[in-house]
Amino acid sequence: MNRIVVVDDDLALLKILKIGLESIGYTVVTARRGKEAVELCVVGRPDVLVVDLGLPDISGIEVLRRVRAAVPLRILVLSAFGDEAIKIQALDAGADDYVTKPFGMGELAARLRALGRRVEPDRPVELSSNGLTIDPVRCEVRAEDGTLVQLTKREFEVLEYLVRNSGRLCTYQMILQAVWGEGYGSETHYVRVYVNRLRLKLGDAAIVNRPGIGYLWSPGGSRQPQ
Predict the structure, then answer these.
(1) What do you get for the CA distance between the two ends of the chain, in Å?
(2) pLDDT per residue rounded down to tens, the chain (226 residues)
């Protein structure tokens, strides 16, 4: 995961990010407009998109939606907006992580490393539960009738972790550290957003909520209201 597209309307910041990230081994392409970033992602198929929300042509949220609908890649938001409602909006639009400006290059590098980690080093070929077939190799989920369920990479990772720990209560912190990586633990809204998206896409998937604690996958159960 070393090819990155960075889009921000701040030219000075773009130069700093390009120099800093390339110095630690990343290949970086920059853009100052959202439409240009979308094109770079669709044509170049990078591993990660780093996107600011305040762009001069289209919003960063719209960039998220367009890129997420077109190509499978990681998306990290880098924004001066620190309000939780905006963070949730970005996650809903397809972001995998959110870093608030100002930030340190060390933090950004750590977040990028976390985006590149796999959930489990040794995965069985296939998991089955509640009529779903989960293929960790292809990162695919199929319904009982064989229909492919369209999940983002992060949605897949959250689902796989819950199913792999079927019947066990997984705290927000456990899910964050397993899926997002070490250093995460307070971003509980990340988990809530992704579980809610899974519920919408999987219908009666048995993700049971334990308010204030976390979630568990209940084999043979039905979906619980969030």
Answers:
(1) 34
(2) 689 999 999 999 999 999 999 999 999 999 999 999 999 998 888 999 999 999 999 999 999 988 987 888 899 999 988 888 898 889 888 898 999 998 999 999 998 988 876 444 444 557 788 788 888 877 788 888 888 888 888 899 899 889 888 888 899 988 988 888 777 878 899 999 999 999 888 876 688 888 889 998 887 654 443 3
Cα–Cα distance, 202 to 150 (Å, whole number): 10
Domain ranges of the chain: 3-116, 127-217
**For 3-116, which CATH superfamily applies?**
Response regulator (3.40.50.2300)
Omega before 46 within 30 of 0, i.e. cis: no
User: What is the Cα–Cα distance from 180 to 2, expressed in whole angstroms?
Assistant: 17
Same fold, 3-116 and 127-217: no
Q: Are 35 and 5 in contact (CB under 8 A)?
A: no
Is domain 127-217 given the CATH code 1.10.10.10 in the classification?
yes
**Structural Rg of the chain based on CA atoms:** 18
Model confidence, pTM? 0.61
Map residue 203 onto helix, strand or coil: coil
List the one residue out of 115, 113, 135 whose CA is nearest residue 126: 135
Instruction: Provide long-range contacts, Cβ within 8 A and 24+ apart, for 207-210.
Output: 207/162, 210/169
Q: Which residues contact 152 (CB under 8 A, 6 or more apart)?
A: 68, 72, 94, 96
